[in-house]
Automatic annotation (TrEMBL):
SMART domains: DAGKc. One of its GO terms (biological process) is phospholipid biosynthetic process. It comes from Anaerotignum lactatifermentans. This is DAGKc domain-containing protein. The lineage of its organism: Bacteria, Bacillati, Bacillota, Clostridia, Lachnospirales. It comes from the Bacteria. InterPro entries: ATP-NAD_kinase_N, Diacylglycerol/lipid_kinase, Diacylglycerol_kinase_cat_dom, Lipid_Phosphate_FormReg, NAD/diacylglycerol_kinase_sf, YegS/DAGK_C. It holds the Pfam family DAGK_cat. Residues 1-131 form the DAGKc domain. Keywords: ATP-binding, Kinase, Lipid biosynthesis, Lipid metabolism, Magnesium, Metal-binding, Nucleotide-binding, Phospholipid biosynthesis, Phospholipid metabolism, Transferase. Its cofactor is Mg(2+). The keyword Magnesium applies. The keyword Lipid metabolism applies. NCBIfam families: YegS/Rv2252/BmrU family lipid kinase. GO terms for cellular component: plasma membrane.
Amino acid sequence: MKKVKLFYNPFSGNKTFKFDLDVCIGVFQSAGYEVHPFRTMQPGDIETHVAQMDKDYDIVVASGGDGTVNIVLNALMHNNLKIPLGIIPSGTANDFATFLGLKTGDSEGACRVMTETSPRNVDIGLVNGETYFINVCAGGLLTNVSQTVDKDVKNALGNLSYYLKGMEQIPNFHKIPFRITTSDEVLEEDLYLYMIMNSAGTGSFTKLSPEASISDGKFEFIGIRAKSILEIPSVFLKMLTGEHIKDEKSILYRRDHYFKIECLDPDFQIMESTVDGEMGPKMPFTLEVLPKAYPIFGNFEKKKHVSRETPLAKLNAVVKNGK
């Protein structure tokens, strides 16, 4: 029998994945898979478990938010495992899963994508030759937002909480001098923040990189260089619709397979970056794209959703509603 290793974070999002677990197991078993769940309980346990687990799994599943997906991906890559990865989006921020056409809260649909479709090799990022990421590496004055938003607020408002927290911090904004080196140029720019994107969005901004592809071997660099702090709110509004890409006065935009990021202000050189919403390396750091480096399941045809109203789904709804 084929085997699935299912890692899930019981504290992600609204903490309701426990109600979906039986449904997910049912979907996999109906398709001929044996499911081995693993409940993450403390930092480092996924990495430890992956290092010790059998290597003959057919699918590895990460249920949680972007951070959980990042941890699972790093654990697999550091153990030289290329087992196809499936995502059940159940966290507050599920940006990469959203880009894959997976709907937050539709655990059954995500599982059916894994049992009814084939994985595709997608690009991933590598920072300083040691840390992998799948969606975004960011730095500047907003990169601690995901770390500072209250958990209850995140659960209540979802990604909107990140946007509101960012707006709250605008009065404290000031530019930071960066040196950005790509494969063919060196730029020195004063920026409020920057993002290096694989998919189209992060946080509340789903159209940061409207033309993004996760299999073209390049990432998009987006830096905010608005002339004054008064322009920031209007830039944010443009970022919500994807219109910011045309605003060369306020946005620095580049596409490449290599970036080196340096801070030219000694007071900010110890500033940490974030990778997939988790704490990342301090500057300076290098980032390279590993083209089509990992097999991942997704609703790549952008169908409405693979999920259907099945007896399992109906049972799950009854359990959730307590009726």
